[in-house]
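seq:
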Amino acid sequence: MAQPDFKKEAEAIFDEMVATRRDFHQHPELGFQEVRTSRIVADRLTELGLEVQRGVAQTGVVGLLEGRKPGPTVMMRFDMDALPIHEENDVPYKSKNPGVMHACGHDAHTAMGLGMAKIMSKYQDRIAGTLKFVFQPAEEGGAGGAFAMIADGALENPKPDVAFAMHVWNPVPYGRVRVVEGPCMASSSVFTLTVEGKGGHGAAPHLAVDPILAAAHIVAALQSIVSRNINPQDSVVVSIGQFSAGSTFNVIPDRAILKGTVRSYNTELHRKIYRRILEMATSMADAFSCKATMETVAIVAPVVNAPEPTAVVRHAAEAIVGADKIDEHRTMAAEDMGFFLEEVPGCYFFIGASNDEKGLNYPQHHAKFDIDERAMINGVTIMANAVAHYVMNGH
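struct:
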């Protein structure tokens, strides 16, 4: 029996997906606060006949679509949360929640997830296996939504054999797709360096121990970690994003605080970087008669695509957009889908969503972020074809 024409199916529900996406866009909710969003998701899945579990990791939703024949369990993950950004777009579907905005595309992901559920539920009689729809809260900012869902049993009863996720991506124009085997997004962690000195009057620095001077030298020294300690063929980022010290112009403070992030594709390399950060910070602080201590917070694991599922996605994408419109893609941005892919082999891919002619070309996390909504057709079609490879083709 021929595989369904999933592009035709996606086009048929395109207006519905747009309406759903715009509704979520008007009512954005931050991580672990997706009460309205998760209620709508759970209600829609229930109406489609799926077995639905609500309240997973507070506001997450898991829906199961059982096929009529035995087979593998295929997981699809869609994130739901928004960002603490005040929207600057002048559109009819502008956020009605001041200071909160879907500036990353999770509204589209959730709409595509519901679109996937509607399409696949029509073919329940032909499915050999189980489809597991995972709607995740709190992806943004390392809030821990994926880890929390795993801890709450999202990968159990049944455990998936393969997992897929996608992201609408504005660095890529509509009509193109990015997918790559191996690492595609970096592990991310946060560190805080506290440099302790001795406060005093700015007019008598010789009577104080200046932590600002020591911290400034630490910032400069840390830039040598990547350039002089890491193989140039490895991808690593060390960035200081916050430098806090003092409260007025003429007082040397007791302490200075530096906050930054490390990004890499390799866990052992990540540890090596932290060893060097601590060594350099403590030594540099000591040289200025200060003391440095460090705290770290691991946020997310790297997103690593397994060979076989990635080949399946690439084949599905080639059939939709053409081989000439598929690029390999790696970014030092982070995504907690990596926690799922540590447990289940799978593929995370990117759907081009920008359109220069329509002015839809602002990057993710920008106050004017918006997408060419036709990207949702490509996303649903590619994922549906990839899923069907496992549950409709006797895989």
